Amino acid sequence: MVIKEDHNTLNARFRGFYPVVIDVETAGLNANTDALLEIAAITLKMDVNGWLEMDDAIHFHIKSFPGAILQASALAFNGIDPYNPLRSAVTEYEALSKIFNMVNKGIKNQDCNRAILVAHNAAFDHSFLMAAIERSDFKYNPFHPFVTFDTATLSGLVLGQTVLAKACICAGIIFDNNKAHSALYDTERTAILFCELVNRWKRLGGWPVSV
Prior knowledge:
Blueprint: H1 10-13, E1 17-26, E2 36-46, E3 52-61, H2 72-78, H3 92-109, E4 114-119, H4 122-136, E5 143-150, H5 151-158, H6 164-170, H7 183-203
Parallel strand pairs: 1-4, 4-5
Antiparallel strand pairs: 1-2, 2-3
């Protein structure tokens, strides 16, 4: 049986934070007024040697909240038809409840303290996530209210690219533009990219940091 060294854990690597990769598709840019239409979440784990990899994934089409604005330009951009009955859309509360169950289980299993959102241009996804959580009136939110890991910033530093597709290609990760703007596909690509950035730092000798 192989025993993990203390530094080969999510708890040690991210100061007790549990990284969860999130992507949203929306009907606009304003998290407080524009509809959240799609959300996907992927949790991460470390193997016994401390290499970061994807764990569980979950994905939902979302019903527009009452009074939500649907910007025609945003729908044309992401190609989502919010009125399509085949979407099998659920409410924000239903989606977030299942995401929270997955995240809380991971936090407990990985001995972490709180989830931290990982996303490409994270401020956007974080704002829509927090707005949906507030509308759903949850008593407990496992995600940090303002701290995030932004793969656009990290990619700019490591790869010299800030666009998700270009960063993935630069990192040797396949990116199909025909599948882009699907929350699940973009979350998968972002998760793979984040793992590569973290693991590349390890391969270069930057983790564990020698004091």
